[in-house]
Every structure is written in structure tokens, then in C-alpha cells.
Amino acid sequence: MKSISGIVFCLASYSSAWAQVDDAVLGDEIIVPKSRIVEEVRGGLAAHDLGWTIINADGDEEKSVALTAEIIFAEPKFLKWALSPQPYIGGTLNLEENTSYGGAGLLWRQNLGEKFYGDFAFGLVVHDGILDVDDARSRSNGTAEFLDLIVNRNRYGSPVLFRQQLTVGFNLSEKWAAEGYFEHISHGGLLSDGPNEGSDAAGVKLNRKF
Question: What total number of domains does the chain contain?
Fold first, then answer.
């Protein structure tokens, strides 16, 4: 799973090399308008497992720091009926050996004047966290490690989770924006009948627009 997050971060680091397909210019005259596949690349720092939501009000066993990154693509024409969402891929890499995850979904944006905007994103992620007691037992080499996993790690109940994210952004310039966000991951009782501790995260990101 950490390798998945690593791939996402590599994509975010190098995507500017192939995403910035600006209009071809000869002198002051545009001669070949080109489309953009990648619209934005954003990355930042997050506080993982804050235990803020009702679902996760008692769950902050994994409170830690994580890196996060996303690549946001242009709106597909075939999704205009769904209010023109933008597809994205992204991941979160935990820096303290707690749960990391990566996945994809759709993002809806609403401009709030000239400087501010808001995003709502919904998608699915896969993760490397603990599923349940049996999973903790299978990962442990002894009683002490088993107890550590049970006490200090969340039990997510499903290897695939829903991800919901709310973002508020501020345009620093035409190409750059600063963002604050909150997200929740859990299976919602729909993807599994196992435990559903889930986790909350909040953080800041820097957004490069193409």
C-alpha cells in the first residue's frame, strides 16, 4: 500500500513535465491550441485520525502526521450530466507507520468570488491499515505486538473505504492556490459488516494549476 502512495507522489512530482501543454505560440500569435489532460497537482501535510466526526468521535488511536498529494484531471464531457465533476487520483502517506491509503474519485468545484473556491470530493481508497481482530492477530508475532495493534491502531473493517473531502481554496495567483481541507474515510456499513472506526484528517495543501 505504501508503494501505491509512493507512486502517487512520484506522479505529482513529475506531472508538470507532461501536464503543462500550453498553447503553442509563434511570436505573439497562438497557432495551435492544445487541450490539457491534467488540470492541477496539489500536495501538502495532514494531521491523521483526529476523531472529529460522530462516527469517529472516540477514535484517535492513530493520531499522526501524513503527506498527501492529488492529481486532478479535466472535466470529461460525458460527465456533464453530473454537474461536470473532475476525476482525481491521490494518496496519503503516513509518516509514523500508521495507515496510508490511495485511490480515485470525482471532485466538484464551486467558485466563491474571484479569490476563493470550495471543493467536494467523493471516491474510494484502498489502505494498509488493520481490518479487525483476526487481521491484527495474523500480522502479529506475539501477544505484545497483537495488543499494540489492537490498542493503538484503528480497525477499518474493509480493505476498500469511502472517502469524502471538503476543501476551501484561496487563489494566490493564476497558477497557484493555497488550500485547507477536511476528509473522512470509512466503509459506512455498506462495504462490510465488520468494524467501522474510520478516520478523520485535516490539513493544508499547495495547488499548482496548469
Answer: 1
